[in-house]
Design goal:
elongated; 6 strands; 12 helices; single chain; alpha/beta; 11% strand; disordered N terminus
């Protein structure tokens, strides 16, 4: 992604969303930060950390069904040791929803006791949900809510407005648009956000992104790559990422009218299958020891 630094991934609605979040954070009792379990560093916005202030925070590593489970456990341990309450979540199956509610009530225990001492026995806990685009915030709320459904799609930028949503008699949550930082300095983070779909495909060179993903898979999840696209050792030995992209395109018969591999279609297919977990359970960032 040679032109990554010039990409406009911080459109006007994000700046407006930050202003709205700053207004609503004042009345929130707790923050639920949703990150992508595959990229537990890149999917955490440092600007959001500044906005949170002293509010209690619960970090949710979402999409854990797409991530390497051993790595997810290491990340939970890592963040917990840093004093951040952290759990994993699978919004598709609903795994972790019960634990999430328990964690909210636990973190709010002392404050609820203070409310009771003041004679406020039915005060609703207000939890604001924050995170970068495409981390699954709306899908999480859909799992939490019993009567209200939020629009959720597997692409960034769907949530545009803030809205408080009751998930039961004691907890309301605020759904907010995904916010990327105005500048993403680390090239690795830029790549990871592109791989997972947090940056809109329309502003990316998808062939370049796919080649970087192939390079990562060769180094870290070679057997998964070989198994998914039926590549043998002879075909992959000493092959560069572009040669592997061509090979994948041939095997999937993604060809132009002239019979050559359509690298754009092949790149789109590869990224789509990675994002859907079809290549395997993959974590792009590992805990540094």
């Amino acid at each position: 992604m040679g032109q990554t630094e010039n990409i406009n991934w911080f459109p006007g609605h994000m700046a407006k969303a930050i202003r709205n979040i700053k207004e609503n954070i004042r009345i929130a009792d707790i923050v639920i930060e949703v990150a992508d379990a595959r990229i537990p560093i890149s999917s955490r916005n440092s600007d959001i950390q500044k906005i949170i202030g002293e509010k209690p925070i619960l970090l949710v590593l979402n999409k854990s069904d797409l991530a390497d489970s051993k790595q997810t456990e290491k990340w939970i341990t890592h963040y917990t040791q840093k004093g951040i309450n952290t759990i994993s979540m699978e919004c598709k199956s609903g795994k972790g929803i019960g634990l999430l509610k328990k964690k909210i009530n636990h973190l709010m225990g002392k404050k609820c006791e203070k409310w009771q001492l003041k004679g406020i026995s039915r005060k609703t806990i207000k939890a604001i949900i924050l995170g970068e685009p495409n981390t699954g915030k709306s899908s999480l709320i859909n799992r939490l809510a019993t009567s209200y459904k939020v629009k959720a799609e597997n692409r960034p930028g769907v949530t545009k407005k803030n809205r408080w949503i009751p998930i039961d008699e004691t907890i309301d949550v605020l759904d907010t648009p995904g916010i990327l930082p105005p500048k993403i300095q680390e090239v690795i983070s830029q790549n990871n956000l592109a791989f997972t779909g947090a940056i809109k495909d329309e502003v990316l060179d998808l062939e370049s992104v796919s080649l970087k993903l192939i390079s990562f898979l060769i180094e870290n999840y070679l057997e998964m790559l070989k198994n998914r696209y039926k590549i043998n050792d002879e075909e992959i030995n000493n092959a560069v990422p572009y040669e592997i992209l061509i090979l994948i395109g041939k095997k999937r018969r993604l060809l132009t009218l002239g019979g050559e591999v359509d690298t754009q279609r092949t790149s789109i297919m590869l990224l789509s299958e990675f994002r859907e977990g079809k290549i395997g359970k993959i974590t792009l960032e590992k805990v540094k020891v």
